[in-house]
Write a structure and sequence with these properties.
Radius of gyration: 29 Å
Oligomer: single chain
Shape: rod-shaped
Low-confidence stretches: 189-193, 220-229
Number of domains: 2
Number of strands: 14
Strand order of the largest sheet: 10-11-9-12-13-14
Largest sheet: 6 strands, mixed
CATH superfamily of the largest domain: P-loop containing nucleotide triphosphate hydrolases
CATH topology of the largest domain: Rossmann fold
Distance between the termini: 40 Å
Strand content: 15-25%
Structural class: alpha/beta
Order of helices and strands: EEEEEEEEEHEEHEHEHEH
Helix content: 10-25%
CATH class of the largest domain: Alpha Beta
Length: 339
């Protein structure tokens, strides 16, 4: 499945039906008056969030959407039929922007949530609407109004509470497969992960928390280097960042600093997001290397908890997850107090 997380589309609502000019011609009504009906309203364009979509792939080949026009009015004061609304399905986490002004129109995060992106035009008035004491036989009607037309940019930002970040080959995909039922592709070369992977991790209470493995962060990611520019936006929705560092790399401290610099450069508050650091692959580190000294350096740099783990061997995962649950609980308490 291709992962498409940003598209531009054109939407156009239906035109309102025209009003008509008509007069009554019944046999036993000698003073027949105007009877032209109003046109029906045009259909609207509506976005609706559905559960079974994960990407914006459906929009890759279809860029233009139009709703049905309203029908013209009929004689005997009959109003034309309204155009049918067109409902477009989108995944949870879709943000809707006006492509021309860059204004955020809606943030669609709940299944079943809807948003009207283009309203149908009003139907025109038939000549019966203009009947008055001064004008007993109006011979004009109004055309229906055009529907709204606009260019939209749809962006998908994954809805995950915990974002797993780190340089390529830090073991992010292996970790998410170890702590959840997700089964991402894992291999020993850079950029194995080309799309974000989601996994649901069960808390001791039985509730599930969504973790996202964010790929492609390297030095210069905020400027488009590697794959990071495309996926840094997905971290914006996370409440907690789990920074994974390859313990077997030549310089784990430099690896930590590289990612932190990218978060600062990208902005949008990512550098201030709560973090937990995990030194991964401790089962494969050279025995002569002082792992605890590296961990201590990371604690001094980050001022956050640092855990020694192995996604492959399952070392230290319970302690790390315990810290994740505690941190999320504290964030919940702060949110309650602030509200």
């Amino acid at each position: 499945m291709q992962f498409i997380d940003q598209v531009e589309v054109e939407v156009e609502a239906g035109k309102g039906g025209d009003g008509i000019v008509a007069f009554r011609r019944e046999k036993y009504v000698p003073a027949g008056g105007p009877s032209g009906g109003n046109g029906g309203r045009g259909g609207s364009l509506i976005l609706e969030v559905v559960e079974n979509l994960q990407t914006l792939l459906d929009f890759k080949y279809t860029h233009r959407f139009k709703a049905e026009d309203g029908s013209r009015g009929g004689p005997n004061n009959r109003t034309g039929a309204a155009g049918r609304d067109r409902v477009i399905h989108v995944p949870r986490g879709t943000m809707v922007y006006d492509a021309e002004t860059d204004e955020l129109l809606s943030d669609l995060v709940e299944t079943g949530q809807t948003f009207c992106v283009a309203k149908g035009g009003k139907g025109g008035l038939g000549n019966q609407h203009f009947l008055s004491n001064r004008n007993r036989a109006p011979d004009y009607a109004l055309d229906g109004l055009p529907g709204e037309k606009r260019q939209l940019r749809l962006e998908l930002k994954l809805l995950a509470e915990v974002g797993i970040i780190g340089l390529p080959n830090a073991g992010k995909s292996t970790l998410i497969s170890a702590i959840s039922a997700a089964r991402p592709k894992v291999a020993d070369y850079p950029f194995t992960t080309l799309v974000p992977n989601l996994g649901v991790v069960r808390k001791p209470s039985g509730d599930g928390t969504v973790f996202a493995d964010i790929p492609g962060l390297i030095e210069g990611a905020h400027m488009g280097a590697g794959l990071g520019h495309d996926f840094l936006r997905h971290i914006e929705r996370t409440r907690l960042l789990l920074h994974l560092i390859d313990g077997t790399s030549e310089d784990p401290i430099s690896a930590y600093q590289t990612i932190q610099q990218e978060l600062h450069s990208y902005g949008r508050g990512l550098a201030n997001r709560p973090q937990i650091v995990a030194l991964n692959k401790v089962d494969a580190i050279d025995p002569d290397r002082d792992v605890e000294a590296i961990a201590q350096q990371l604690r001094q740099l980050s001022h956050v908890p640092v855990f020694l783990i192995s996604g492959v061997a399952g070392i230290g995962l319970d302690q790390m997850l315990h810290e994740v649950w505690q941190t999320l609980a504290q964030l919940d308490e702060l949110a309650t107090i602030n509200h």
